[in-house]
Amino acid sequence: MATRQHVNALALVAVVTLVHCTYANTPSPSATEFIGKLDGRLEELRRDCLGVDIIQNEVRNKVSSASRIDGKKVIRDLAGLLRERFDERIAALNAIKKGVEEDYAAVKASGVLKECCKLFPSSLEYHARFKSKANSKSFCEAKAKSAGNVRVLGEGIYSAMSRNLKQVGMKRLLRNIKNGVLKECCKLLPSSLEYHARFKSKANSKSFCEAKAKSAGNVRVLGEGIYSAMSRNLKQNQRLKWQFFGSKEGLCTIYPAAPLKECHAYDNRLRPWYTSAAYPSTKKLVIVLDTSSSMASRVELGTKRRTRLDVAKAALSTILSTLLPQDKVGVVLFNSKVTLAGSSGVDECYSTRLAPAGRFNVNYLKDFINRSRPGGGTQYQNAFKAAFTLLKSAKSGDGGGEQSFLLFLTDGGPKDDALEVERLIAQNKKEMEESRERVTIMTIGLGKDEHMKDFLGRLSKNVGSKYSQVDNEAHMYSAIHDYYSHLQAMATKATKNYILSPPYADAWGLGLMITVAVPCFSKGEFVGVAGVDLIMSDLLSEVQYFNQAGSDSFAFLAHLNTDNALSHPLLPPPETLTKDPSLVNILALEQGEAFKQFFHGTLKHIKENDIRTISLPRRRLSTPKGGLQAEGVAEHVLDYTYYCSRVLEYVLCVALPEVVTDLKITENNGDRLYYHRMDLVQEDEVCSYTDTISYKDKAVVKFSAKAFLNPPEYLDVEENPTLIEKYMNHANQGHQDTMFLPGIVQTAKLSKGLVNYWIHGEHKQYLSQIPRRFFGSANGVLRFFPGEPLPRNYDHCSRHWFNKANAFKGQLTFTTPYRDPLGAGLIVTASHSIDIARGSSPSLFGVVAADLTMEFFQTMVKMYLGIRCKDVTSTTCLLVDVGGYVVYHPSFAKRDVFEDESLVTAKHLTEIHGDIAEYLISNGIMTKKTCQDFVERKLQISYEIDIGDKEMVSNIEWTASKCDAFSLVRVPSTNLYVLAAFASRHSTCYESVPCACNVTCTTQTNEECECPCRKRLEYNYCLDENAESSVPICAPPSSSTFTRPSLPVDLVRLPDCFPVQCQKITTEIQCRKTFSCSWCTWDKAKELGVPYCADSNACYGGVEGRANPFFRKLIDSNGLGSSSNKTTWRGKVVEALSVAKNIITEYFPLVVATTVLLLVMFGLFLAVFCCCKKPKGYTGLEGYYDGEEGYDGEYNGEGGFEGDEAYGYEEGYDDGLKYYENRGDDDFFQLGEEF
User: Fold this and answer.
1) pTM tops 0.90, yes or no
2) Which stretches within 25-70 are classed as H helix?
3) Phi–psi pair at 864, nearest 5 degrees
4) Using the 8-state DSSP alphabet, how is residue 1211 labeled?
C-alpha cells in the first residue's frame, strides 16, 4: 500500500511539471483553472455543514406575517417605560436631598457643642451609673489648648452613642461609636467587600464610605438622615445603583461603600454630575494664558520640579474638564504676539468664535494649550482684544444671555502701555454689559512680580475684575477655586427638583452613565450636590436593542436642548465606552432636510406624552460589513415612518419600515431547550470540551438581553441555579407570565430540526472537524453546538460574522482569521443569512454559522483550488473578500503565525501585494469607499472589489519593475475572490510594497494606493454641525472582548465529549482536519525529521512542546493542573516506529517504482526544454524568474520578507503533495469525502 501511495505522490510531481509547461504558454487562463472545485466544496460546506437549507425551509414554513404593527402603541409603551425609570431615580434623589438638608439643619440648630467646662449646673443631675452629675440628653466637648481647626461631628456618632447608652456590652459600644465615623473609600478592607452584579463590581451594601479630595477643606461626616434615606432607597428599588452626596468642600459620601485605588484622587467637584447641578447656567469662557519666557521658571511641587507654565496647564486642563457640552469655550495664548487655536488655517473657526465644550473640542483645546512653549515678552493689549472678540462672537440668540467669563493667567506685568490696556478692558466690559451680556473678568497672578501685582490689583479696583494672587504655585487650586466659588454663588435654590447630567464614563468602571442630580441648600446657602446614577445600558437597553419590526427597525434618544444623541444604532453601545464620549448631534446621524425641519419645527416644541409622526421615504441605512470600521458599510434604502414622544428633556423616536407586520411562529412541540450555563445547572450528563464544560449530544440556548421583557434585570442579576431554572420553566413549560418577549421561545424551538441535523445527521465527520456551529436570530436567540457557558453580555448580533452575513444576504461569507474568544485558537467563521419576507423587502431573520480552525480551512482551500494554483513555481493563489481583506494566504500556515496572531488578522491586499493592489485601484476594479465616523470625527477609508458581470479579470502584461501580473476570479455565491499572483518563489518582487500603510491617510487622490486608513472629517467643529453629504455614516465596530464564566471545579476529571486519539492518526491531512489535533512539524529550533500528529495543546501550530495559549489551565479539586491534554514523547516514538516499519517493509518496491518514475520525468523535462516556447511578444510571466538573483525570504505580514525560507511554500503548497498519500488511483482527485 505504501508503494502505491508514494508512487501517487511522485506522479503528482510529474503532473505539476507538465501543467507548468502547458499553462505557462496559455496567455488567457480560464476561471476554472484557479477556482478548481473550491466553489463546489464551499457549497457542500453551506449545505452539509451549516445546514442552511434546513433552517431556511423551517423559517419559510413556520414563520408568517400576522397583524400590522401599531407604531403609536410601540412608542407609547417604550416612552412610558423610560419615564418610569427616571421617576424612580428622581424619587430616590428627593429622599437623599431631604436627608442631607435635615442633617445640615440639625447641626446648625444645635450649633457648636458646648465645652464641658461651660455647662450650666441647672442642666445636670446625679446619675448613679456614672457616680456623678451629668446630662444624659446632651453632649459636650473638651478642647485641648493646642487643638487646631476642628469640626462638629454629624448625627451618626450622636445617634450611636445615644443607642449605646441603652444597650449592654462594651464590644457593641465600641463598634457603634466607630460606625459613627465613615471610612475612606480608599481604605476599605477587601474582606468587607463582595461582588454585586447590579454594581458590576465589589461593594459593601451594608456600609457607606467617603472619598475626600486632596484640596478638601474642613468637612464633616453627615448624620443619620442621608444614611437612612440611601439605605431605604436601595431596599425599595433593587434597580438603583450608586447614591452619593458631594459637598462643596470636596467630600463625597458614597453608598454602598466601594473601593477607590488611590486616596485623594477623586474630587467630586470636578465630576460632570456635580458641575451640571452646581453650575447649571450655560457659560461662555475664554482662557487667556501667558506663555512668555518667564513662565519657564522652575518651581517646587512636593518632590517634583515643574515649570510655571506646566502648573498653569494642569490647572486650566481641570477647568476645561468641568465644562458642560452646552457651554462655549475659546483659548488665547500670548507673549510678544497672540496665538489662537486654529489660526494656522486648519480649523480656522476656533480663531473666530467660541466652540461648544464637547469632549472633542475640549480635548482639541487642551492639546493646543499643552503644545505651547515659553518664549517672548508679555504684551497684554492684543491678548485682551482677541479674548473680547471671541466672547462677543456668541451673540444673543446664539448663546446670548449666558454668564461670560474671561480667565486671565500670567506671571508678569504688561510690557505694553498699562493705561491703554486698562481702558481697552473697561470699554469692552461696558459694551458687553450694555448689550445685557454679563461678563466676569478673573485674573490669576503667579509668582512675586511686583509690576504684575500692582497692575492686576489696580485692575480689580478700577474695572471690577476678581484678582487672585498665587505666590506658591503648589497652592494653584486655591486660585482656580475662586472661579468655582463664583459659579457656586450663582447657584440658587432650583425651582426644578432634578438636573440630568451629560453622559460620562463612570469612575468605578460601570461604563457610560448619566446622573440624576440636585443641588442641596441649607438656609439658602449652597452646600453640595446629591446624585443617583443611571447606567446608560440599563436605562436605554430597550432603545438600544429595539427591533420589534425586524432587523431594519430601530430607536433612538436625543436631548432636546443640546441636540445630542444619547442612543442610536450608529453609536457605540454605551457599555463598550471607557472614557467620556464625544457627543454626536442627532442631525449628523439622521441626515436630510425633512428630518431637520421635523426636529427643529415639531419635536423641539413637543409636550410630554404627545406623539408626533413623520414619513421619510428612501431613508439610507448603514449596515456594517464586518467587525472593523475599516471594512466599510453597506447601504440600503427603505421607506420609514418615525414615531416620536417626549420623555423629560429628551425626545424618543422609533423608526419602522413602511408596511411591517408582527411575525407569527408555529412552535415545534416537544423540543426541550437546554441552557448554556451547564456549569451552574446540569440538565444532562456533562463532559469536557477543549477548556470548558459541555453536553455530548445536546445543543444549548442563550438569550441575549434584547430577548427579555426587562433587559436591565437580566444584566443586573448574577445568574444562579434558581434563576436558570426559572428561565427554562418559562421556555419549556410555556408560562403565561413569561419573562421573554413574544416570539422568543418559538424562535428558539424553530431550530430543532437544524440542531438535530448537526448532531445526528448523515455528515457526522463534521463533529470531529468543526469546533462549534450556531444559529443566531435577529431577536436575540442563540443556539449552538457543542455548547459552553457564555457571559451574559455576549450578544451574537454584534459579532462580525453576524454583520457579514447581514451585509451580504444570500451569500456564504467568511471572516478574516481571528483569535477565537472561546479558546479554539485562530479560526475563520463561515456564515450565511436566513431571510424572511417582511413587508416589501426581505428582512434578516437570523444567521447560521460555523467556526473553522485555521488548519482545517487552510487544508480545505489548498486541496480544492484549481490546477493552476498547484503550480507553486509561478503562481501564488490567495482568497480575498469583497473589501480586499485576505482570508487565505499560503504564508498563513507558517509557524510564526501561531506565535503572533497579528500576522494574519485584518491583513489587507494593499499591505501584502501592493503592486497588484495599485493596479486594481488605478483600473477601477478595487475602489475606495468612505464613511463618516462622527464619534471620533474621522473619515474612514475602505475598499470594495467589483468586477461587474465578469467571471474573471486578468492582467497578464507585466509592467516594468512591478509585480502586477494576476488573475482575479469571483467565487460564486460567496463574498470571496481567488487572486492568483503570477510570481516565482525566486522573485524579488515583494521586497518593496508601494502602498502607504499608516493609521492616518497620507495620499491625496482616490487613485493612489494606500492601506485602509482614517483622516480628519470635514466638519464645522465650532458650530458642531456637518454639511449635508451623500457619504454614508460608519457603523460602530463589533465588541471584541468579554470575560468567560469561570471554570467549574474538577473539569479535568470529566470524560471528553469527543475523545480523539491524535497519536493514532498517521496522515497529515487527517490530522490537520481534526479539531484538537495538530501536525507536529517543528521543535523549538528546527524542522522535525519525522513529523507526527499530536494534541494541539502539546504541539500548537505544529511546534512541539508549545501549548495552545488560548486554552485556560484546568485545575482539579487538589489544585493540580490538568495533564489530560498533554502528549508525551510516546506519541512521537510510536509514529516514528510505524513509519520506519512501513519503509523497511516496502523498501524494495518503492525504489523500483521511484527509478521508473524518475526516468519518465527526465524524458518530460527534455520534451519541455526542446518544445515549449512562449508566444511571441508574451511577457506575462517574464521577470519573475530572476535566475541567479533568486530570493529566499519569508513573509513578515508587513509587505516584505525575511529569513531563509521562501514565501512559506515549504509549509504551504509543497505540503500539498503529501495530501495525496494513502490514496488509491481511483480517488486521486476525489477527496471531498474526506471533508
Assistant:
1) no
2) 32-35, 38-44, 52-62
3) -105, -10
4) T
108, three cell numbers: 446648625
- Phi-psi label, residue 302: left if phi above 0, alpha if psi -120 to 50, beta otherwise: left
Amino acid at 209: C
- The two beta strands, 499-500 and 512-522, are antiparallel
* Residues 106, 195 within the same domain: yes
- How far apart CA 804 and CA 764 sit, in angstroms, is 27
Judged on CB neighbours under 10 Å (0-12, 13-18, 19+), 252 is: buried
Q: Are strands 338-340 and 328-334 parallel, antiparallel or unpaired?
A: antiparallel
Closest CA to 782 of 140, 791, 92: 791
| Closest to 127 (Cα-Cα) out of 137, 142, 119, 118 | 137
Contacts of 670 (CB under 8 A, 6+ apart): none
How far apart are alpha carbons 956 and 165 in whole angstroms? 99
Q: How far apart are CA 642 and CA 602, in angstroms?
A: 13
Torsion region of 734: left, alpha or beta (phi above 0 gives left; psi -120 to 50 gives alpha): left
Neighbour-count burial for 547-582, b at 16+ CB within 10 Å, e otherwise: bbbbbbbbbbbbbbebbbbbbbbbbebbbbbeebbb
Q: Residue 647 corresponds to which cell in the numbers above?
A: 420623555
Does the structure show a pLDDT above 80 at 705?
Answer: yes
Residue 482 to residue 1082: CA distance in whole angstroms = 70
The last residue of one of the domains, among 479, 511, 539, is 539
- Asked which of 382-391, 401-410, 832-841 is least confident by mean pLDDT, the reply is 832-841
Beta bridge partners of 647: 650
Q: Give every CB contact of residue 429 below 8 A, 6+ residues apart in sequence.
A: 439, 441, 463, 464
Give the position of cell 471572516.
Answer: 815
The C-alpha atoms of residue 223 and residue 228 are separated, in whole angstroms, by: 9
Residue with cell 503548497: 1213
Residue 603 CB contacts under 8 Å (≥ 6 apart), including other chains = 560, 612, 644, 646, 651
Residues 479, 350 share a domain? yes
d(CA 1129, CA 874) in angstroms, rounded, equals: 39
* 249, 266: one domain: yes
Comparing 203-217, 588-602, 807-821, 1116-1130, the range with the smallest average pLDDT is 1116-1130
Residues 397 and 452 in one domain: yes
Among residues 472, 504, 539, the one where a domain terminates is 539
Examine the domain organization and report whether 906 and 1020 are in the same domain.
yes
529 close to 275: Cβ distance less than 8 angstroms: no
Closest CA to 86 of 497, 579, 569: 497
What is the mean predicted confidence (pLDDT) over 1081-1093? Answer: 88
Handedness of CA 393, 582, 944, 657 (dihedral sign): negative
pLDDT of residue 493: 46
Pair (979, 1069) in one structural domain = no
Q: What is the pLDDT of residue 1187?
A: 32
Contact 1081, 713 (CB under 8 A): no
Model pLDDT, residue 220: 63
Q: What angle do CA 307, 308, 312 make, to 5 degrees?
A: 120
Q: Is residue 1077 part of a domain?
A: yes
Give the count of domains, the chain: 5
Q: Which run of H or E residues covers position 161? A: helix 155-166
Neighbour count for residue 1033 (Cβ, 10 Å): 22
Could you tell me if residue 842 is inside a domain? no
Q: Say whether both 272 and 284 belong to one domain.
A: no
CB atoms within 10 A of CB 588: 23
pLDDT in tens, 263-292: 888 888 888 888 888 888 888 999 999 999
For 1078, the domain range is 1059-1119
506 lies in the same domain as 486: no
For residue 104, tell me if it sits in a domain: yes
C-alpha cell at 822: 472561546
DSSP for residue 257 = B
1027 found inside a domain? yes
Phi, psi of 1063 (to 5 degrees): -65, -15
Task: Identify the CATH number of the domain in which residue 427 sits.
Answer: 3.40.50.410
